[in-house]
Amino acid sequence: MTRRTRRVEGTEIVQRRAVTAVLAAAALLLTAGCSSDDAGASPEGSATPSRTTAQSPGSGRTAEETPPAKGSVKVLRTVTEGLDSPWGLAALPVGDLLVSSRDEGTITRVDTETGRKTELGEVPGVSPAGEGGLLGLALSPDYASDHMIYAYYTSASDNRIVRMLYDERKPTGEQLGAPDTVFRGIPKGFIHNGGRIAFGPDGMLYAGTGESGEEGLSQDKESLGGKILRMTPEGEPAPGNPFPDSTVYSYGHRNVQGLAWDAKQRLFAAEFGQDTWDELNAIEPGGNYGWPEVEGRSDDSRYVNPAAQWSTDEASPSGIAYAEGSVWMAGLRGERLWRIPLNGTEASADPQPFLEGDHGRLRTVLAAGGDKLWLVTSETDGRGSPGDGDDRILELEVS
């Protein structure tokens, strides 16, 4: 399916959230004393830098077998449509999907065979505004026995992580138990709230956070903003973390919204840049990824260079997934799915774009097993141009 021609910037969009987001962003920029095209204070995916191409750093550091330089993507089907500001995605053991609505604060179950949607309930305490709201979802490592859903959301005072019992025996709309706060105190802002959470192969909970528009937080190891956090399922600093009694796992990030592990259990993260470079990073415990001192690659040995980087108009990356030897990265402003073939912790070839402009803004991608991916569009987030049926979950076949 080919998406209709995109509307040019400045055309009126009849969408309540779009108007609200633009007005709020303008107010924020005026308050900060920035020009209207200053990407340093603008919402995700709204920077307007000069167009450049995606880059990889050359040869890998290991002699591992690498996937072919060129791959392919096939859209198998539309799983469901009519979603409102979808953001987080989690796969249930039976194969169905859970999807969060950023602006509505609800979690919906999607039957992947029929596309039928069933609302589990609304998460209390969610305070949506700008890029904040109900964001990432993850299932407990012990979901088979405890039926716990973890969620990252923006409250009136902070960003936090909660867990809720999912009781399928209760009526539709009332199946979520009261939220138990696992972790709180992550800085919130109109922009840069991070929000992706995932349990790693080690059973620990990882969270990507943003610096909430305050750049200095990223280099402050005492702050939770602009970090990747690693904690136990109960929210305590995980054993083996690089800094004593701290959940901080890596720092110097601007806004992390993608987390995924490769076949050798190495962590990768996608990060929004400002004016010049978006990044895919291989995460090292205790690593400093440079923001705001550097953006993209540098010659400064204090900072870890990205595995790959893109101009911000080609990517604005949110979710990532690993499949078939590559990281797959969803682009918001870029409106495309990027394939980054890996050799160890570096890209083994130039990143390859797919689906450019076909389905609009792309928010979340999740491995579905083997060569399959789930892909979530993001046209109803207030910055897109929603068409009939938006937003959707698509099933892809990749290689």
Automatic annotation (TrEMBL):
Domain Glucose/Sorbosone dehydrogenase span(s) in chain numbering: 83-383
Organism: Streptomyces chromofuscus
SUPFAM superfamilies: Soluble quinoprotein glucose dehydrogenase (SSF50952)
Protein's recorded name: PQQ-dependent sugar dehydrogenase
Polar residues bias (residue ranges): 45-59
Region Disordered, residue ranges: 36-72, 377-399
Residue stretches of biased makeup (Basic and acidic residues): 389-399
Matching Pfam families: GSDH
InterPro entries noted in UniProt: 6-blade_b-propeller_TolB-like, Glc/Sorbosone_DH, Quinoprot_gluc/sorb_DH_b-prop
